[in-house]
Amino acid sequence: MPVPAVEAGPLKGKRVVVVDADRGLWLYEQRAVTEPHVRNGVPVIGVLDEAAYYLSQDEPDAVVVPRSQPLDTLWVEKPVDVGNTSPIPPAQDDLAKSARTKSLVVDLDRPPVRWLRFAPHELEVTGARAWVLTRDGYEFGVRVLGEPRRHKFEGAIDWSKGIESLDKPAVGTAVPVCSEIRWYRWRRTGEAPQQVEWYPTEFVWLE
Q1: DSSP 100
Q2: Which among 2, 46, 152, 157 is least surrounded, fewest beta carbons within 10 Å?
Q3: Cα 136 to Cα 194: distance, rounded to the nearest angstrom
Q4: Helices then strands (H, E): number in the chain?
Q5: CATH classification of the domain holding 70
Q6: 89 belongs to a structural domain
Q7: Residue 163 — pLDDT band, cuts 50, 70, 90?
Q8: Pairing of strands 129-134, 137-144
Q9: Is the pLDDT reported for residue 92 higher than 80?
Q10: Are residues 75 and 121 part of one domain?
């Protein structure tokens, strides 16, 4: 759910959405790297795109220069509990794929809600930001490293917490995921992530 940055409390480190009114776009994969401060009489926030943000996290000596973004042009992406219902977006069958929730720009006053999308329903998943169902609930802040394929798990999976009788066989269709910092390191250096976890595709939702 997009929340105006002026209402979102401490901002440093949070993912933000930035309006680009000149191009009629919402810019995602941005991070706030400062708290609000005043420049030339205007409240602003220092912002980096996530590639630069994770470079600064991974290599503290790297030189990265945030840009100043007016506070009133920023929104914070906030996960919202939808109760016991699955996070399935409203039917959008009448819209072209390019106009569905993940890219739909309703207006430039407020970013659209980004409903999670069920991974088995997507044609391509590589590179997507994802939520995965673990024994302790949903975990986010990970990236999908590849397309679904058959995978052998160590023993049967019984992850029924919050779900009724969710049992999976030891062999099934799964996708590999890693942390975002390792994803961006891979993109930057070509160094393949060493810590990769496999999740049944049915346990993965995409942002």
Answers
A1: S
A2: 152
A3: 23
A4: 2, 16
A5: 2.30.30
A6: no
A7: very low
A8: antiparallel
A9: no
A10: no
